[in-house]
């Protein structure tokens, strides 16, 4: 089976983990600090704060930005649930705005209509590795005094008009889950240019401590371990190479599949570097496709099978929304393998299988 994702862990990552295990610094220590510096540098951000996951990064980011009870957070319904769950963690209400059907990212045109007196922040997601329309969204944020947070969990290394994601909004959050463009096992990172946000984020991720045993605000244990950071430091050095492979693989798939009228290949905006966390096409009869491709030994994924507001949790909370493009996309999207471990032979097998879909 060609897997839908496959993390690349080589001898250098393994050796670095062994070094940490021998050092005695197993929890947050010098490796976390080194990883934060390297990540801030990579994303052209002033500060980077490592966390235990992408989810905790989002939670900390909203807390540090002062978003809380009674506030509204505008976001996309077409993402992993962690994006809007972060609003729920801090007692805020997620408000869903429909997506652009070409890019699958939040449609800036819908944002202004969703703004109320209670709106405090916008969380955009750079879905599948393609940056959201940040210029437009930043303008809206500035006009209305809203904090713009990038959920860059799927977009490490992506560029928007030549600028790195992670430096486009007021705060950005990354995930290093094993399916992501780089991994630390579990892990996350917050980037920001705002000194106060960075300081608060450091406190919130570690029990709200201003110094040892001085708890000044409510915090959590959302720290990254040095074991994870050691993997991240090595992976970050390989990120551009991994992304180049993803892009090459995506281009090869598109060259060979775009002429087929029963499949819609991904759209890439002008002047962006889409880093293809996922290569997601649209099809009809998705269930038949899934059964067929898996039968052909090709792993596939559905990102995502329903808009977040259709999750039972959100329905129970009465967080309904009307986002027809997200509904349609959630019925049609199908992700094919695009990760950097694929061989030419794997890619040709995927193309062959799609070309020979029995319908
Ligand atoms: C868009 C998005 N946001 C947030 C997350 C949460 O990250 P994590 O799994 O590291 O908590 C993920 C990934 O899982 C994601 O894809």
TrEMBL record:
Database matches in Pfam families: DegT_DnrJ_EryC1 (PF01041)
InterPro entries: DegT/StrS_aminotransferase, PyrdxlP-dep_Trfase, PyrdxlP-dep_Trfase_major, PyrdxlP-dep_Trfase_small
Keyword Transferase set for record: yes
Keywords from the UniProt entry: Aminotransferase, Pyridoxal phosphate, Transferase
Protein name per Swiss-Prot or TrEMBL: Aminotransferase DegT
Family assignment from sequence similarity: Belongs to the DegT/DnrJ/EryC1 family.
One annotated GO molecular function: transaminase activity
